[in-house]
Amino acid sequence: MKALAARRHHRLAPVVLLLLALLVTGGVYAALAPTQAQAETVSTEDIETGKKLFQANCATCHGPSAEGTEGVPSLVGVGAAAVDFQVSTGRMPMQANGPQAEAKPAQFDAEDTAALVAYVSSLGPGPAIPTDEQIDPALGDASNGMALFRTNCAMCHNAVGAGGALSEGKFAPSLWETSERNIYQAMQTGPQSMPVFNDANVTPDEKRDIIAFLVEQREGSAGGAALGALGPVSEGVWAWVVGLGLLIGAAVWIGAKSS
Predict the structure, then answer these.
(1) Any idea of its EC number (predicted)?
(2) DSSP character at residue 89
């Protein structure tokens, strides 16, 4: 017993206990933590086709192995959702350097986009493309989506998703014509100045609620003319220019009549 007690008080005992605790914690986390990436069925042929497309169209900036270059991020581990968002919206490949990559007609068709997604996804795990169920606005709660959107997104995208200006020549785009899939993927991956809203911050069901709210905005304003959906700015301009103009016109007309 004395020998066992002496071993417990050995100067390396705390180090051994710490290593054991870290090993157990890591094992439990690996077993129980949800993974961002979802298993997707891709063929070796898709990956090889995507690699050729990448080498021809993307490697100049992102490096031959997608490891990134000076001022250009690595694509290892960005996941399928990031690639699908950037390529399907035409933001990548960029036509010219600028404050941010702007949306434009897609340079690749759906088949080539899928091949690029397969190749980059093979380099490391990351957020997957959402399922049809995850982006179905009919399954979402628009009222909860409104509350979530105005808490997390309205300061950049405007209260109804009309977009807005940011600093240094950047801007938050309007979301009225953005597809449901790309709205979800933008929240997953945080393109450019946008923060990442992972499933711990905004759950998949809450993302779908936000999509449901944004889809409702496409139906028009229930209050009449939207005036650009800029809120009190455009409404104030309308009141001052039109309202005050009418008052001045009326005063001039009354003055002319009295004389």
Answers:
(1) 7.1.1.8
(2) T
DSSP-H helix ranges across 9-109: 13-32, 44-57, 59-62, 79-88
Q: What is the DSSP letter of 242?
A: I
State pLDDT tens for residues 78-87. 999 999 999 9
Q: In whole angstroms, how far apart are CA 97 and each of 71, 72, 90, 93, 94?
A: 11, 11, 14, 11, 7
Nearest 5°: the CA angle 176, 126, 43 is: 100
- Pairwise CA distance, residues 147 & 233, whole Å: 22
Q: Give the list of residues 6+ apart from residue 190 with CB closer than 8 angstroms, or none.
A: 196, 197
* Residues 6+ away with beta carbon under 8 Å from 137: 180, 208, 211, 212, 215, 216
Spatial separation of the C-alpha atoms in residues 145 and 89, rounded to whole Å: 24
What percent of the chain lies above the pLDDT cut of 90?
A: 59
Looking at the chain, the whole-number percentage of residues with pLDDT higher than 70 is 83
| Bridge partners, residue 69, by sequence | 72
Rounded to whole angstroms, the Cα distance separating 77 from 87 reads 16
Q: How far apart are CA 170 and CA 184, in angstroms?
A: 21
CA distance 102 to 90: 8
Helix (H), strand (E) at residue 8? helix 2-8
Contact call for residues 161 and 150 (beta carbons, < 8 A): no
